[in-house]
Every structure is written in structure tokens, then in C-alpha cells.
Specification:
This protein is an alpha+beta fold. The protein has five helices and six strands, in the order αααββαββββα. Helices cover about 35% and strands about 35% of the residues.
């Protein structure tokens, strides 16, 4: 009986030592603030402050492009887009869901972006994204992995055999 009481007390002590559950609402506010900053940076054509939000070993999986590994590759990708003359006139991210598990946070959201490219008409794209963050040693969230894709259908050219049938 005495062993059972001691064991029960040990279990009670260990249970009370567990970390409190994460404040998901607070983490969501943090994620929403990062999204708002990223949207402003994109419209302003500023890249460096946004790049500070990425982990050094981050992975980005852009729509219609190869996987990018590491912060340097991601920065190079964005620099190429800017060098081609891509300019955002409006960007809106909407956070749909945030979940917290240990040092990781995942965000699911939607976006609407309007932009211009030289020689092309203005374009607005709607889509969705998934971002995984990791809590860094300094307490900040760093983007560990991201992917996005468009809801906008690409114009399709009919295949040669379809053209003959028309």
C-alpha cells in the first residue's frame, strides 16, 4: 500500500511538471503579424527583412518551380523575380488555421496578390499555402518549410489533334 501511495505521489509530481499547453491564440497573432509584415515588404519590394524570418536550412516549394533548399537559394529565387521586374501592387494573406506542436507551428492560409511584370498586363492571383515554423533559440518563429499554389487556372493551348477536330 505504501508503495502505491509513493508511486501515485510521484506520478502526480511528474504530471504537474509538464509544460503548460501552448497559447494558440497568441501564436496565431504572432503568425498574423509576420504575414502582415511580409505583405507590406512584398509591396515595398523589400526582401532582406522578410528573409530574416527564414531558418538557414529552410525549404521552399514554390508553385511551378523546383524545391529550394536553404535560405541562400530562397533569397536567390526572390532576387531573380525582382530582377525580372516583378512588382507587387497588393498582397493579402489570410490565416485560416494555426496549430502548435512542441517547437513547431504550422499555418494554413490563403492569399490574393496583384502584380505587374514588364510587357504583361497586370495580374491578380488567388491561392493557398502551408508554412511550417520552428521556434528558434531566441524565441522567434523561423520559417522551416513552405509551399503554395494557385487557384487560378492556367490557359491551356489545345493539343494539335484537338485543333484539327475544331
Amino acid at each position: 500500500m505504501r508503495t502505491l501511495i509513493v508511486l501515485s505521489l510521484c506520478c502526480l509530481v511528474l504530471a504537474s511538471c509538464s509544460a503548460p499547453p501552448p497559447d494558440v491564440a497568441k501564436v496565431r497573432q504572432e503568425v498574423e503579424a509576420m504575414c502582415e509584415k511580409n505583405a507590406k515588404d512584398m509591396v515595398a519590394g523589400v526582401m532582406d527583412t522578410t528573409m530574416n524570418q527564414y531558418a538557414d536550412d529552410a525549404i521552399s516549394m514554390p508553385n511551378n518551380g523546383p524545391m529550394l533548399r536553404g535560405k541562400a537559394a530562397i533569397k536567390s529565387y526572390y532576387a531573380q523575380m525582382m530582377a525580372m521586374g516583378m512588382k507587387f501592387s497588393a498582397v493579402k494573406f489570410t490565416v485560416v488555421d494555426v496549430a502548435v506542436g512542441g517547437p513547431y507551428v504550422h499555418e494554413i492560409g490563403t492569399y490574393v496578390m496583384s502584380f505587374q511584370m514588364p510587357g504583361m498586363p497586370d495580374f491578380t492571383d488567388n491561392g493557398k499555402y502551408l508554412t511550417v515554423y520552428e521556434r528558434a533559440a531566441d524565441g522567434s518563429l523561423k520559417i522551416k518549410a513552405e509551399t503554395w499554389n494557385t487557384d487560378t487556372e492556367m490557359p491551356m493551348e489545345p493539343a494539335p489533334e484537338q485543333k484539327k477536330a475544331m
